[in-house]
Amino acid sequence: MSPSLTVEPARSAILVIDLVNDFVFPGGVIADAGGAAYQARVQAMLPTLKKLLDAARETGVTVVHAPDAHTPGDAELRKWPAHAMKGTEKAAIVAAIAPKAGDLVFEKSTYSPFVSTGIDAELRQRGISRVYIAGLHTDCCARHTSGDAFQRGYDLVWISDAMDAFTVEGHLQGLEYFKTWYASDAQAQVKTADEVIADWRAAAPRREPPAPSQS
């Protein structure tokens, strides 16, 4: 199915990558590596993410979280200092967008959840063919996740104001990479949160008002 065709909320998921305390707030290994300006941008993005997730639940889009949850033997820790260690407060999903009943959570030990979790099997079992990508970082974990999802045949949409990187330049370069290597229709596949929400609401099944009670 081409991403330019009809939006189908029941066959769609929004995937939020690495929105854990370690990546967002001062004192986190990754947050501190990004610096104060990065932290401010990501924290300012939280209301947009919350709005997206609320709209997804409202319209029948599956909400999926893919947070880092590392253990000491993970290969990634040969590159990065220990961060978002499994079971710690730093690995907890940020409270503002904490999972709710019905959401899926796949704790990952690699940049992409398609490598170290059962996300692919679960999405396929649910009949999901389109994945909306949000979270951190546009030029790293979101990039690797996108490549894996693309090569498994998923339609992809990147939510440009619900993603970020250590630098604005890194974020913009990440979006351009998606357009170059994965998008078949960049206008349909790189959208803002408001555009995505409008698409979902327009496509969601209409709820009939309850019939008046008979007295």
Features:
215 residues; Rossmann fold; six-stranded parallel β-sheet; 40% helix
What does this protein look like?
This protein is of the alpha/beta class and 215 residues long. It has a single domain (9-129, 136-203), classed as Isochorismatase-like (Rossmann fold, 3-Layer(aba) Sandwich), CATH 3.40.50.850. 40% of the residues lie in helices and 15% in strands. The chain contains 9 helices and 6 strands, in the order βαααββααβαβααβα. The chain has helices at 21-24, 29-34, 36-59, 113-116, 119-125, 141-151, 168-181, 186-189, 193-203, and strands at residues 12-17, 62-66, 104-105, 130-136, 155-164, 190-191. A 6-stranded parallel beta sheet has the order 3-2-1-4-5-6. Helix 3 packs parallel to helix 9. The radius of gyration is 17 Å and the shape is globular. The termini are far apart. The model has no long low-confidence stretch (mean pLDDT 95).
What's the structural blueprint in terms of helices and strands?
Layout: E1 12-17, H1 21-24, H2 29-34, H3 36-59, E2 62-66, E3 104-105, H4 113-116, H5 119-125, E4 130-136, H6 141-151, E5 155-164, H7 168-181, H8 186-189, E6 190-191, H9 193-203
Parallel strand pairs: 1-2, 1-4, 2-3, 4-5, 5-6
